[in-house]
Design a protein that fits this description.
alpha/beta, Rossmann fold, GMP Synthetase, Chain A, domain 3, 3 domains, six-stranded mixed sheet, 17 strands, flat
C-alpha cells in the first residue's frame, strides 16, 4: 500500500503550489488568494525509487464561520489518512500565532510532522528559518515552490522519513500474477456495486442496502470461476468530496484510489436510471489515467422503456468516447440478467492487457499503418518511424523508434493506437504509444568534418600606424 502524505498549514502559504510541483500537474488551483482550496485534493507523486499519494488541504484558520469549519474538518480527515504531515509555513510572513496553534494540534494528533518553510525567494536559509525553530518540530526544509528550489532536498527527506515506502527500481516493470485476475468494481454510491458482487459470487458476501455509503472500505474477495482465479475488490462509492463528511467515510476516496492501483481490470458500474453524471466522468478519468483494462456495466437496465434505453446508450457514446475500447454490458444485478456475460469480457480485457507481441509483428503493423496513412511533414521533412517493440504490459506499451518522433501530432498518435488495437485484436485495454528519436551516430563526425572543410579566412596583418 502506498504511503499517504498530507499538506497542512494556514491559507495562502503555497500548499497548492507545492502540490502541483510534486505531482507535476495543475490539479490544484493556484492564486494569490486565501482560502482558494477548500476540499481535499488527491494526487500521485512518482519519483525514482519511491512513490506516494499526496493530499492538498484547505487553509487552517482560527475563524468560526461555516466555511472555515468545513475546511478544518476536511484537513482533519486528511491528517487522519496520512502517514506523514508536511506542515507548510510562509517564510516571507514569518512565524504567525496561527502557525503555533496548528503545530500544537499536530503534536496532539501524534503523526510524524515535517516542517516546510515556503516562499523563501532571495533569502538566506539560516536567517529565514531561525524563528521557526520555536515551533519545536525539528530541522525545517527551506524551499521555494514557485522556483523549484529545495524540492529535491524535500523529497529526500520524505523518502527518509517514511521507511515503509515501496522501493521501485527505475527499470522494473509492474508485476502481476498472470494466473489471477484482480477485478475492482468502481462506481458512485448506490449504483448496485455490492449487489453485483453478490450476484457474481452467487452468495450474500457483502452488505447490500438501498442507502448511499453502505460500503465503507475496500473488500478483497478471492474466488474461482470456470478454472480461473479471481480477486474481486468491492470499493466504497466515490461521492463528491464536499459531501464526504461522516467520520466513517473519510477513507472512501483514498481506498478507491488504492484499489485502482491493486487491480488489473476495472469494472465501472453505471446507473441506467440516472445516466452519466459528473462523478462517473471523474471515475472514468481516474481509470484511464491508471491505464487499467475496463469493462463497463450499466446496471438497473430492467424496467426501462425503449426510448429511455436509446437515450442511455447515446449518452454513454457521447460522454465516454475515451472509453470506446471498453466492452459495455447492460445488466440487472438484482435479477441477474446479463451478469453471466461479464466474466467473458473481463477475461478478454485481462488477456489483452497482458498480451505479448514479438517485435517483428509490431513492426509489420507499424509499416502497414504508415503505408495506409503516412506521417505528416515537419519543417519540410517527413517523420520516419523505423520499428516498434513492446515495452510493457497492463496496459500494453508500444515503443516506436525513428527520426523526429517528438514532433508526432496527437491525432496521428491516436491513429496508431487504434491501428495497433484493431490489428492485434485488443479489447478492453488502452494502448500506450511512446516515441523515441534515434540518435545519429555520424552527427558529431559530420559537424566536425564540415567545420574542417570550411575555408578559413586569412587574417590580415596588423596595419602599421603612420607617424605624424
Amino acid at each position: 500500500m502506498k504511503p499517504v502524505i498530507a499538506l497542512v498549514g494556514r491559507p495562502n502559504v503555497g500548499k497548492s503550489t507545492i502540490f502541483n510541483r510534486l505531482t507535476r500537474s495543475r490539479d490544484a488551483l493556484v492564486a494569490d488568494y486565501a482560502g482558494l482550496t477548500r476540499d481535499r485534493i488527491y494526487g500521485k507523486v512518482k519519483e525514482p525509487g519511491f512513490d506516494f499519494i499526496l493530499i492538498d488541504t484547505g487553509g487552517l484558520t482560527d475563524q468560526t464561520d461555516n466555511m472555515s469549519d468545513l475546511m478544518r474538518k476536511q484537513a482533519k480527515l486528511a491528517i487522519d489518512e496520512a502517514d506523514l504531515i508536511l506542515f507548510i509555513v510562509d517564510g516571507r510572513a514569518g512565524l504567525m500565532p496561527t502557525d503555533s496553534d496548528v503545530a500544537q494540534q499536530l503534536r496532539n494528533d501524534g503523526k510524524p510532522v515535517c516542517l516546510v518553510i515556503n516562499k523563501t525567494e532571495g533569502e538566506r536559509r539560516e536567517i529565514i528559518s531561525a524563528e521557526f525553530y520555536a515551533l519545536g518540530l525539528g530541522e525545517p526544509q527551506v524551499i521555494s515552490a514557485t522556483q523549484g528550489r529545495g524540492i529535491d532536498s524535500l523529497l529526500a527527506e520524505i523518502k527518509q522519513r517514511i521507511p515503509a515506502v515501496e522501493k521501485i527500481e527505475a527499470d522494473e516493470a509492474e508485476v502481476f500474477d498472470e494466473n489471477e485476475i484482480r477485478l475492482a468494481v468502481l462506481g458512485r454510491p448506490n449504483v448496485g456495486k455490492s449487489t453485483l458482487i453478490n450476484r457474481l459470487l452467487g452468495e450474500e458476501r457483502v452488505v447490500a442496502f438501498d442507502e448511499p455509503g453502505t460500503t465503507r472500505d475496500s473488500i478483497h474477495i478471492p474466488f474461482e470461476k470456470d478454472g480461473v482465479n479471481y480477486t474481486l475488490i468491492d470499493t466504497a462509492g466515490v461521492r463528491r468530496r464536499s459531501k464526504v463528511s461522516e467520520k466513517l467515510e473519510k477513507f472512501s476516496v483514498l481506498k478507491t484510489l488504492q484499489a485502482l492501483e491493486d487491480a488489473n481490470v476495472v469494472m465501472l458500474v453505471l446507473d441506467a436510471h440516472e445516466g452519466i453524471v459528473e462523478q462517473d466522468l471523474h471515475l472514468a478519468g481516474l481509470i484511464v489515467e491508471s491505464g487499467r483494462a475496463v469493462v463497463i456495466a450499466v446496471n438497473k437496465w430492467d424496467g426501462l422503456e425503449k426510448s429511455e434505453r436509446e437515450w442511455v446508450t447515446t449518452n454513454i457514446e457521447r460522454r465516454l468516447p475515451f472509453l470506446n475500447f471498453a466492452k459495455t454490458h447492460f445488466i440487472s444485478a438484482l435479477h441477474g440478467s446479463g451478469v453471466g456475460l461479464l466474466f467473458k469480457s473481463v477475461r478478454q480485457a485481462f488477456q489483452s492487457a497482458m498480451t505479448k507481441v514479438p517485435t517483428s509483428r509490431l513492426t509489420r503493423v507499424l509499416e502497414d499503418a504508415i503505408a495506409d496513412h503516412p506521417p505528416p511533414l515537419v519543417r519540410g521533412r517527413r517523420i520516419k518511424f523505423r520499428y516498434a517493440h513492446l515495452g510493457g504490459k497492463n496496459p500494453p506499451r508500444i515503443i516506436i523508434h525513428g527520426n523526429q518522433t517528438e514532433s508526432t501530432p496527437n491525432s496521428y498518435k491516436r491513429y496508431l493506437e487504434n491501428t495497433f488495437r484493431e490489428a492485434l485484436k485488443l479489447q478492453g485495454t488502452p494502448v500506450m504509444i511512446e516515441f523515441k528519436t534515434s540518435d545519429n551516430p555520424y552527427r558529431d563526425k559530420a559537424i566536425k568534418s564540415a567545420s574542417q572543410n570550411t575555408p578559413q579566412k586569412k587574417q590580415r596583418p596588423p596595419r602599421k600606424s603612420r607617424k605624424s
